[in-house]
Specification:
Length: 363
Amino acid sequence: MNKLTQYGWNTSWDHEWSKEDRSLLKPGRITADFGQMYRVYTSEGEVWGELSGKMKHTLQSGDPSPAVGDWVELQLLEGEGRGIIHGILDRKTSISRQKAGAKSAQEQLIAANVDILFLVTSLNDDYNPRRMERYLIMAWNSGVSPVILLSKADLCDDAEVKAAEMELIAPGVPVHAISALEDLGKDAVIGYLKEGVTVALTGSSGCGKSTIVNWLAGTSEQRTQGIREDDSRGRHTTTHRELFLLPQGGLMVDTPGMRELQLYDDDGGGWEQVFADIEAIGEGCRFADCQHINEAGCAVRVAVNAGEIDEKRLLNYRKTQRELQFQMKKEARSQRKMNRKDRSVKEPVRRKSSFWNSRLNEE
């Protein structure tokens, strides 16, 4: 198992593994997801993994597919350089978002068993505090520790001002202005990359995530390309999720850029944590159900008028609240639909059973 420690295996995972008889299986960590196939690191090296028939059937019921960072139960096929994935160990953390375009509430798992999440935004036209609030909600809900990276600091004359603005919307969250081009802030970032620690990168397309991976690795692990000058946006350079072992000893997951982050749920209380200042001031409102729009005695509106709260932050507070409430309703509708489907399958069986019972009673 020693080779696995650099990929995050520890006594906690060892204890989890020993709970069941897995003598015919080996643990492995998914390092890349290509849809039907996975790259998995094991104590015997890296192999290709595919799902067992039973797992494929289970996933059809709506369970999330294995994700980069997952620890899996693997049956190695000797001499073939591949294995069959029979199960997933319980995740310690999972970074999720609402699946884009889905009519019902559907979780899209981005990465699993991540310790630290680097929230990346570049200091050009991509810079957007309101978007960062959404990323922070996702981070807190995932159970990971967020760190904000302001990339491309060489393109900005007031990087310190932008960093201070981010610190205001994310109290207690580390904020670092960095530049791969000028090698700025590298020591601060490397400080998070300890052996066995998994760090994931997320942010909009073109914010410099792949550049950061290459910068820290000292090699061209990820392909990069330029951004459009008119809107500072990039195309999806990274097309799949992948986990890299860095020379500093840490692990890093690069993910495709997000043009839009749709929040999935708020089980971890991320929304309240991001907007804790507004929630605290709101306790002073006259009405317990105050929406902070134009109600009499609204303490939040008083704070906005006094310049203590940014009006745009309050608007995002209400917008993300509505979005999460809507997702909860969609999830409830999906659950009711599944329950009706289950009943429709079971009902004919019950009717048939009742028919034969009545015949037996007559006899």
